[in-house]
Amino acid sequence: MKKATSFFLFILSIYFYSCSNEAPPAPAGIFPVPNETQLKWQDLEQYAFIHFTTNTFTGKEWGYGDEKPAIFDPTGCDPEQWVVALKEVGLKGLVLTCKHHDGFCLWPSKYTEHSIKNSPYKNGRGDLVKEVSEACKKHNLIFGIYLSPWDRNRSDYGTPEYLAYYRNQLRELIENYGPVFEIWFDGANGGDGYYGGARETRKIDNTVYYDWKNTHSIVRELVPQALMFSDSGPDIRWCGNERGHAGDPNWNTINNDTLHPGKAGIEKLLNHGSEDGTSWIPAEVDVSIRPGWFYHPEEDDKVRTPENLFKIYLESVGRGSNLILNIPPDQRGLFHEKDIESLKGWKTMIDETFSVNLAVNAKAKADSHRGKHRLYAPDKAIDNDPETYWATDDTVTAGSIELDLGKIQKVTYISVQEYIKLGQRVKSFSVDALTDGNWQPIAEGSTIGRKRILALESPIETQKIRINIKDSKACPTISNIGVF
Ligand code: FUL
Question: Which pLDDT score, from 0 to 100, does residue 7 have?
Fold first, then answer.
């Protein structure tokens, strides 16, 4: 046999050997894992909250419930202005306060007179839930509803009759204004209120009064693709504060059977979740662009700056949560110019920081990968495909992945994502950079989850970055790494 032929056969045999090197099975899921709807929701990252009711005209944050519908009079109201502004800054949808604690309804509900139909807005023929949901459809934003369980207007609040009223309204909203992607069940109950003229304090037992199980089943039946938010889920949990930050660590898992609004110590628990949680209930970070949830003219000079919103982004989306950012329409029924200016500045900061990912053209190597097979090779963490990931063998729960950026680059942020379809795994990790021939530690994190962004204390000039998974509940599955 000629030399060339035998060399060719040798290469061919290597090729066939590597083809027959069957890929080991994917790592088993670490339960609980997200369902399909939650996974889709986690990819949204950020959307808006819209607080609008009589409070916008009375200057209150919690309407007492005795406000006359006549005061709800936005003279230049344009939900399309809201939707276009949100879309321009990259928010994917909105959740509208269809009814806040004051009980005033932004749609002409057939179950109450305390609504927009008795207001001057469009001479009582307006329906803001319809207008907003249609503007969303027109501009391809998804639409969600907030329906306050606490109702300070209703005389029957606290009785079983009120529960029937609440559920009728929920059905009315879902059936007439859907599809909805998220339903917000607020846990607040401050006690006192108008209550149809009783003007008294009514505290309900949050553990039993609302009989949430049966309300949830109405939603599941009417709109199975909607996710329900409350302090305790069932699908999305509160992050435990209204200041704009998820916890560090932030586990998507929590034990929700003992959770209820008002439970002692619940804020901390919700903020961090539980490593050994038995349900997948990711946290949502709710925060307002202004000090209040509703528009008050005296807060026009207190609108959050782009820098502040950027910090919130890092501590919500950058800690694996979704951000629901409240922008309240003013008394005209428009987003205020100051709010729009801040939103635009924020969007510019996000784009400028994260549009060029230096990891995309990097070379990746790792100290090990699953079954030594290409399917789980380190470059799967930088191929920009969310369906592929670098993974190790089942027995390996720590490991390092190194990225060679090709030349010295200025690095300020590192982002890491887990393949959460198989559950959340990583408990702690660190990042090193090679400078002057030495590896030096530059950042540290606890959990990763859907996305973890680490901001370096100061930018560093380096060609090589190393991410060390120090501890993980099971073999790590890293689907994406970004270097910015
Ligand atoms: C809280 C409410 O009491 C506030 O008014 C606001 O709606 C916020 C989002 O949730 O529990």
Answer: 57
